[in-house]
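Progress note, project year one: complex with zinc ion.
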Amino acid sequence: MSKKNVSHTKWMKRAIFLASLGRNTTSPNPNVGAVILDKNGNLISEGFHYKAGMPHAEAMAFEKLNKNAKGGTMYVNLEPCCHHGRTPPCVEKVISSGIKKIYISVKDPDKRVSGKGIKLLKEAGIQVDLGLCKKESLELNKAFIHRNITNKAFGVLKWAMSIDGRVALKNGKSKWITNEESRSLVHSLRAEFDAIIIGGNTLRKDNPLLTTRGSKKTEPLRVVFTKSLDLPSKSNLWDCSRAKTLVIYDSSTANESYLTRLPKSVEVEKVSSDNPELISKILADRGCNKVLWECGPRLATAAIQSRCIQEIITFIAPKILGGENSMNPFGDFEFEQMNEIIKLSDSQVSLIGNDICVKSSFKN
Ligand SMILES: NC(=O)c1ccc[n+]([C@@H]2O[C@H](COP(=O)([O-])OP(=O)(O)OC[C@H]3O[C@@H](n4cnc5c(N)ncnc54)[C@H](OP(=O)(O)O)[C@@H]3O)[C@@H](O)[C@H]2O)c1
Ligand SMILES: [Zn+2]
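Model obtained:
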């Protein structure tokens, strides 16, 4: 790599770093960072997008700018917007600033932008370089990109199991399989997500809280998917003072008279079948980029089968639950041949005290 390219990469990495500062707060928007250099290559401003409704990264960088950007260079990890959303288009700001060259890492998959921003910049005589640090930028905004392309939320499935691969005893008891450190890691992990999903049975058996325990100002939406609507009238999830709760039920099987058990503070939505894809779509429509499935084996199996899961996080504890009837993390996928089994990729392994955490991706 030439010296010149090394410095372009350095500035784009700075833009990506700035973008990552909005990692847990920008949904439904993407994570964007911007860096501006003057015509001599000196850093004169930078910015990042923090929250929907607040300035975009480029706008923040221009707001802070107190030097002339004419003839300068901009680095931004996502194509600047060209539509009037909650804030005016960034492309107009870039053009009027007199910037000569812009490095853009990846195109914006949002149909209102998707190449149109680049076209406008080029038409205004600005040199556009597309693709610098593409891999890192795709990784940072993978959930936003996934939602825009598929209209479904990017799903991560998390479960905790013993070293003999069990997630609960046969009577449903599962508190606690992992150590305290792993459990507290899960609380902070939840901050990366816009919603946490469980099935009705996990609610009945575990009565979970599903919060970040304060590590995120606005707690993720807690979602219960139920076929029966046979949910208890008392539950930790019904207290919506700290985190909101949404119950989604399958109207083809549910007993709607059970709706009276739910307090008014709990939001309710009905769907026409038990296909988890419907959950993923509803949450994407609500602006959730990334959702965490913390369900038990039955819903987890259905979620994988309906391609709602893009990554998994498994906590494995050195404990033995034993017994043929204690629960596996999944139900039956009905595979007959070894070439049908699910193969995951990009695994990362870490030790949390005595527990092991494995993260892997699906190839779908
Ligand atoms: N170790 C762990 O990481 C972990 C995590 C979560 C749960 N668990 C354990 O898992 C057990 C519960 O397992 P579970 O499999 O019954 O989990 P679940 O998370 O409750 O999912 C199953 C429930 O989801 C609802 N559902 C909606 N659509 C569905 C579909 N297409 N397929 C299947 N279910 C659908 C149904 O609720 P309704 O019955 O209300 O209709 C069903 O009973 C509990 O003992 C809990 O302790 C362990
Ligand atoms: Zn913008």
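The radius of gyration is 23 Å.
The domain at 3-146 is CATH 3.40.140.10 (Cytidine Deaminase; domain 2).
No further modelling is planned for this target in the current period.
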